[in-house]
Amino acid sequence: MIFRNKCKACDYWTVFELKVNDETALKTCTHCQNKEEILWDSSAETLIRDGEKDIRALEGHFPALASLKNRGDHIRF
Ligand SMILES: [Zn+2]
What we know:
Elements: E1 2-6, E2 13-21, E3 24-29, E4 35-39, H1 42-58, E5 74-75
Antiparallel strand pairs: 1-2, 2-3, 2-5, 3-4
Bound molecules: zinc ion (ZN).
């Protein structure tokens, strides 16, 4: 699955790819390819879902966020 968030490694708002393997998940920034393994539990799922909600709320102020759709898309304000 893919989701949008801010990447700590490249400091861009970008599209992440998430691959879930049972108890862990690999989060990859599709812009800088930085990979982060996270513990995959219900709180991680909630974090990602809440992050998407934040982005949807921010789209009102920063319409460019709405253009983050495909792998490799990235923006910085
Ligand atoms: Zn990145």
